[in-house]
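subagent[fold] <- orchestrator: predict structure for attached chain, return tokens only, no commentary.
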Amino acid sequence: MDDFFNISSVSQNQIIFSDINDSIKTLAWITREKHQVEYFSNAICFFQGMTGMISLYLAISEKKRMNFKQLIHALAFCLLTFSGLADSSQQHSVDALTGAQTWSNDGHGVQLSLTQILPDQLKAFYGNRGFTLEQIEAYTSTCVYMTVLRNDNADGTIHFIRDNWSVIAGGQQHALVPVDEWVKRLTTVDTPKAALVAFRWAQFPVEQSYQPGGDWNQGMLSVALSPGTPFDLIAHWDIEGKPFQLSLKQVHCAK
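subagent[fold] -> orchestrator:
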């Protein structure tokens, strides 16, 4: 096996040099476009990955023999580089007019976003659909988000079940309240049936499939936490049974 690593051909040197050059270009893009503190760790991973590839390149160009352990270390640094970037695309923005905050992330060809629906907006929305403020208070007093999931260019049709998603707050995992449970909580003898139908249709789908190419949907999602509580949301889906997930970290809502 050691003979395999005693490489000196020009074509192989060119391949390694091309990989190093691509990594440098990507690092330059990160440092130019991503100035937030959370991206510093990704830059470190890139430096490590470049170090591994440069070590491999030098060993080849100088016709040195690399043992198997050295090669594994070099490749491990390269893998670290790309795994460190896996969740680096999260974005955060604030609407200048309303103050509503949006968190978004994309991965595996899928985009996920949460935009806080402010309490006054929720009360107005459901009041116009037949609820009294007292009837809808159990829902409007929690953190509620307009949730969007879009299949931009995944490897196939994505399928999700909303109840498989999870919320993590204070180090504890919290299950999302099922839509049917919310309907039960909001149902009283005086609640108009049309209001309950409108509530159900306004929620983020319980289960859905989206085709690649931009197929998407949106709806309201309550994380059933008190305003101001930071949390992570982990969305799960599958493509022909193969599981995927995407997270939004340190989401919170205004009081």
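orchestrator: received. Logging for downstream: The domain at 91-251 is CATH 2.60.40 (Immunoglobulin-like). The helical segments are 10-33, 40-61, 68-84, 119-127, 133-140, 179-186, 193-202.
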